[in-house]
Specification:
The protein is α+β, with helices and mostly antiparallel strands and about 250 residues long. It contains 5 helices and 9 strands, in the order E-H-E-E-H-E-E-H-E-E-E-H-H-E. Strands 1, 2, 3, 4, 5, 6, 7, 8 and 9 form a 9-stranded mixed beta sheet that branches. Helix 1 packs across helix 2 and helix 3 (about 135-145) runs antiparallel to helix 4. It is globular and about 60 Å long.
């Protein structure tokens, strides 16, 4: 059975996350409905990962199976016409039958957008946590994340996952021109609300309410997330998903 991968980007502001839910608008639900309408087949997507309610994606990948081959260019063009304007399909391509959007991904990268000052033009896609943050202390906290750790102290509890260990490949703060600051974290996997909890913890330290030792204690001892205020979802973007060329050549 032919298998296709979809590469898409979306503004998650009005959606209840990526994953399909009964009686709720989700990104997966919108794309599945559009594909099913156009192909006259029941399409079910398997995504590279889930984004929470209100979270956005620069690059999300998902695959689907269909009994007969499709005309890629025609399907892509018709998707552009039928999907809402806050979801855009960048590409569709046929892949091998063993490709899996989630399990074949080598790593994922999230970007959280902070504001240095209140900004009416970026307020929907970035968070202004207050002035005079201690960026040096926040960078120190991020450095402590690198490597393999149990992130149960920075995630919502989920009975679906066998464990809470993740390997962070890189984590840092980048000052952009103008008013934006990017917090970027790259890891082999992410837990539910993990990035929002990390950013919330960073801001708690940066504002002087807690010190770096408090942050590291959450990491080492898996303290409950109730002690950390989650950063708002509006500033979070799934930025990149990496696949080895042997699995999916995106060049």
């Amino acid at each position: 059975m032919p298998r296709y991968v979809v590469q898409l980007t979306y503004d998650g502001s009005r959606y209840n996350g990526w994953q399909r839910q009964p009686d709720a608008e989700t990104v997966q639900g919108e794309v599945e409905q559009a594909l099913s309408t156009l192909t006259q087949e029941e399409i079910r997507l398997s995504g590279s990962g889930r984004t929470d309610t209100g979270v956005h994606a620069d690059n999300q990948f998902a695959h689907f199976d269909i009994p007969i081959p499709v005309d890629r260019n025609s399907l892509l063009y018709r998707l552009w016409r039928i999907l809402p304007d806050d979801i855009y399909v960048r590409d569709i391509r046929e892949v091998g039958e063993h490709f899996h959007a989630r399990f074949d991904a080598g790593w994922r990268q999230y970007r959280y957008q902070l504001l240095l000052h209140p900004d009416p033009f970026h307020r929907m896609y970035a968070w202004y946590p207050g002035e005079r943050l201690d960026w040096k202390a926040m960078r120190s906290c991020l450095a402590s994340l690198e490597g393999e750790h149990d992130f149960s102290g920075f995630s919502r509890k989920s009975g679906e996952l066998p464990h809470s260990r993740c390997t962070v490949l890189s984590a840092g703060i980048e000052m952009q021109s103008g008013n934006l600051v990017y917090v970027r974290i790259r890891a082999n996997r992410f837990l539910r609300s993990m990035v929002r909890a990390i950013v919330g913890g960073l801001v708690t330290v940066g504002s002087g309410k807690k010190n770096t030792e408090w942050f590291e204690k959450h990491l080492k001892e898996g303290m409950e997330i109730d002690n950390i205020a989650l950063a708002p979802a509006k500033g979070l973007f799934l930025e990149k998903v990496f696949y080895p060329k042997s699995v999916l050549d995106l060049t």
